[in-house]
């Protein structure tokens, strides 16, 4: 990811602003004092920062199947820039799609299964998709992770 530039905030707080470089802009903050406990720091950490920092390919989708967020690991796995994935529809990235798809029913139908994703360069990425981390039926968003199995499946088929 691009280097971060540090800026002094109005209250003496330091924050880092990531350069976009075609990727989604995720604000990183370091609020508070040096005496904050790890729990205090964790409770103030924005969710999108956490999702961006984890090295596991992760996306958040709305109920209609539009991608709301894709972290760098997911964008790298499918060969797209993050900003091109935001707003994309499920069928634009996924080759595997159940009939009468909605994001919730699609995730439930494909949870813990190997799905086919369309790489930007035209080839197929095979990945195991998790269940949604957001479990309530009334959650307006699904959040899933992927384990890239493409290379492993090529070796197994040989």
TrEMBL record:
User: Could you mention a single GO BP entry for this protein?
Assistant: regulation of DNA-templated transcription
Annotated spans, Disordered: 1-39
| Gene3D superfamilies in the record | PAS domain (3.30.450.20)
Where is the sequence biased in composition, kind Basic and acidic residues? 1-25
Give the source's domain of life in one word: Bacteria
Q: Which Pfam families does this one have?
A: PAS
UniProt domain PAS: residue ranges: 50-87
The protein depicted here goes by the name Diguanylate cyclase
Species, as recorded: Mycobacterium parmense
Q: What is the lineage of its organism?
A: Bacteria, Bacillati, Actinomycetota, Actinomycetes, Mycobacteriales
